[in-house]
Amino acid sequence: MQKEEIFKIVEKQNKWRSECLNLIASENITSPEHDKVYVSDFMHRYAEGLPFKRYYQGAIYIDELESKAVELAKDVFHAKYVDLRPISGAMANMAVFSALGDYGSVLLSPGVLGGSHISHEKFGVAGILGLKTEHAIFDKKEYNIDTDATIKKIREVKPKIVVLGGSVILFPHPVSEFRKVCDEVGAKLIYDAAHVLGLIGGRKFQDPLKEGAEIISSSTHKTFPGPQGGIILSNSDEKTFKKIQSKIFPGLISNHHLHRIPSMMIAALEIKEFGEDYATQTIKNAKALGRAMYEYGFDVLCPDKDFTESHQILVDVRKNGGGKKVASTLEKANIILNKNILAFDDVNNSDDPSGLRIGVQEMTRYGMKESEMKYIAELMKKIVMDGKNPESVREEVIEFRKKFQKIHYCF
């Protein structure tokens, strides 16, 4: 491969996704101001350790930036302790789980069928660390954790770690209720906010730390519109947080990709300034898309609960050929979303699950509102319900996207 081929493929990607309806619930778009500081000399440098306590020379400016970034994150998320060094949400989970659990101890989470991230499972981080995994009792109709039944299970299995949040979360989780039983059995309560961190920062979802979560682990690039990376927040005791920090370095990460820090600060400032409006519109858009798709005959989950309180909706497309077929067909029309396992699926059938997971946060950042969500639903109906050739609908999508190229809710 020649360098010209590399540039050409990157150019193709940039052009293609600027012509797409990007509805992947785990993605977002960063602002021009963010991008200005993302590529810098910091990307070439190392800064092992914590600000002003480095093992390398040459860290005077990253010390200044990172210390200020920590203070900014404390302000935005009302946290007592912050660590920005995890380079992904899964890495944040590994640091937290390894600090709070021992080999063979029990971790209880919603489970993949209940919306957990794979890092919470025996085939992910939890299993790598030798933790035994148990699952919360999930109410498939309410599409949320069954609080009473799970409290009973927590008392029975006595986990050392209880994890809420995750990859599929339509509605707030029972944090305050679980904190009481966690205290009773001696468990640490963790909230994986990867998907809803921007909504939390915008004060339009639940506030896990205020409600009693001891630790928030998260990525920084979903509803929070920052660089790909991770973050850990806590209002727990200093001793516990320092134990987690020792797992980050020297345990898991040598250098923490310094160029993320200034760009993460821009994203945090955007959430501080525009987060409430952005989160409000994101949730309005998710509800509007759910309603419109439901009216067109799609089996959108939780119609009696107005579909969602977050940035995402779930759609059962078994009658339309299943998640794999529908997601692949829509991609041909430049409508990008993902197949997703639903609570009633076989956990071993993740390759062709029943559902779709659709997130609206990126298109919200591009200025789309409720009327645009209705039109997106109409486009999907043409393909999935009416059987229209996706290649012809693709031209409609491209024309539609031309109107939405400017990023909103930013400086």
Give the SSE map:
Blueprint: H1 3-18, E1 21-22, H2 32-38, E2 49-50, E3 53-54, H3 60-77, E4 81-83, H4 89-100, E5 106-109, H5 125-128, E6 132-135, E7 138-139, E8 144-145, H6 147-157, E9 161-165, H7 175-185, E10 188-192, H8 197-201, H9 208-211, E11 215-219, E12 230-234, H10 238-252, H11 260-295, E13 299-300, E14 312-316, H12 323-331, E15 335-336, E16 338-340, E17 355-359, H13 361-365, H14 370-384, H15 390-401
Helix pairs in contact: 2-11, 3-11, 4-10, 6-7, 11-14
Detailed description of the structure:
The chain is an alpha/beta fold. It folds into two domains: 32-267, Type I PLP-dependent aspartate aminotransferase-like (Major domain) (Aspartate Aminotransferase, domain 2), CATH 3.40.640.10; 274-401, Alpha-Beta Complex (Aspartate Aminotransferase, domain 1). Helices cover 44% and strands 14% of the residues. The protein has 15 helices and 17 strands. The protein has helices at 3-18, 32-38, 60-77, 89-100, 125-128, 147-157, 175-185, 197-201, 208-211, 238-252, 260-295, 323-331, 361-365, 370-384, 390-401; strands at residues 21-22, 49-50, 53-54, 81-83, 106-109, 132-135, 138-139, 144-145, 161-165, 188-192, 215-219, 230-234, 299-300, 312-316, 335-336, 338-340, 355-359. The strands form five sheets. A seven-stranded mixed sheet has the order 4-12-11-10-9-5-6, sandwiched between helices. It has a four-stranded antiparallel sheet with strand order 13-14-17-16. The longest helix is centred in the last third of the chain and has 36 residues, at 260-295. The relative contact order is 0.15. The mean pLDDT is 97.
